[in-house]
């Protein structure tokens, strides 16, 4: 029997508030409790990456790099972990190799110890360069399998991918169940099979959206999982992770006892319970278990965003139609796992299909780029009729999308000019030009913090509404796309009102 203590990664500083509070928690509200967090003895604390990077600049008037440095300074004994979208880094498109390299080098220098890497399509080509760089700079490379279910996503395929990732240098493997789809018995079987063939540790990440998260962890523990992701109880459940204290309590006195102090965890939970009240207006639309995630495979964050967007466009009565359309579009697009950015791509096409009353009457440029292969290789072939509607006679690319990109750092340096005070500033601009420029301009002007935050949010919103959409490459051009698929919901809204 496995008697190794189960280790825990707590997501309180990243995925928990991203899932529940629209990524709005400020660094200042994290710092007062970090001495206690550091004393717990976590395997790691996930505190950076994902949507926290652009949200810090976009909504909070904060420098995400400063956040990384500050949190690490307050967590000297705890490994700091980030979520990295492979070649997408923390953005919504592929970036050139030089940007990827510089970003990872600076992330490591700013305190990131563990890099959890994934690709939305499970295309390992889009993970390879980031893995190489992270390993070179001494980071722990945790390569992830995006867990989902479909006719082409089988346990055999997941095991094969894990073995391939280990061969590419992964220091550990994460089963990344971003929608909370994994059942307890599937968790047991997948973990058991991975432990039988891998030499590196296995970690399981899930969400509580379907209500199965805690039980899935317990079966994974029985199968020998090394680490699981939890969230402190006051930031857990719903679309977040299972509660830390529950897992600790369930294993107390058992062979895989975590050894963590429940009294200390209770103090942390009490602090975040009070802190959460400050962000009540950002609470997501899913307040409890939503089993529709099992039927439609839509992550909780995507559900709450869909509700908000449809309500904004006075089309909430079409919600159930859009939900039903999502899995149909997903199948036609080759069963991509629904995680950023593919969740936005599939969700927007489904919304357009419903609002326009005719399927694929309009195919957004982002969807065309996906079909062209600019996000990577779909898990299954795209439906031929849909491919023709999107591309006509054009054929998709078959290379790694980033191979089509020219280096971008020097260009970004020239464009942002004296506003950039560091390499980190240049990288922020390279990833999010509009958002970073506004942030850096406001920083240069100074002023009261609340005024800066309000001004940044207003200016970014105005830019995204008024700026022309970047063009995708013309057929045959050897340049990968540079459009962020965030404005697609606005496009759907304009169409639903009869505009363009």
Model description:
This protein has 500 residues and is α/β, with parallel strands linked by helices. The chain is 48% helix and 8% strand. The chain has 22 helices and eight strands. It has helices at residues 15-20, 34-40, 52-59, 64-74, 97-109, 125-136, 155-167, 184-197, 213-223, 244-251, 262-277, 292-296, 300-312, 319-332, 342-355, 365-372, 384-391, 409-416, 423-431, 433-445, 449-466, 488-496, and strands spanning 7-10, 44-49, 80-84, 114-117, 140-146, 172-176, 202-205, 227-230. The chain has an eight-stranded parallel β-barrel, surrounded by four helices. Strand 5, helix 7 and strand 6 (172-176) form a beta-alpha-beta unit. The longest helix has 18 residues, at 449-466. It is globular and about 65 Å long. The termini are far apart. Residues 466-500 have low confidence and may be disordered.
Short description:
With 500 residues, the protein is an alpha/beta fold.
Provide a count of the helices: 22
| Strand/helix succession | EHHEHHEHEHEHEHEHEHHHHHHHHHHHHH
- How would a crystallographer describe the biggest sheet? 8 strands, parallel, barrel
What is the structural class? alpha/beta
Strand order of the largest sheet: 1-2-3-4-5-6-7-8
What are the segments in which pLDDT stays under 50 over at least 5 consecutive residues?
A: 466-500
Shape, principal axes of CA atoms? globular
How much beta, percentage-wise?
5-15%
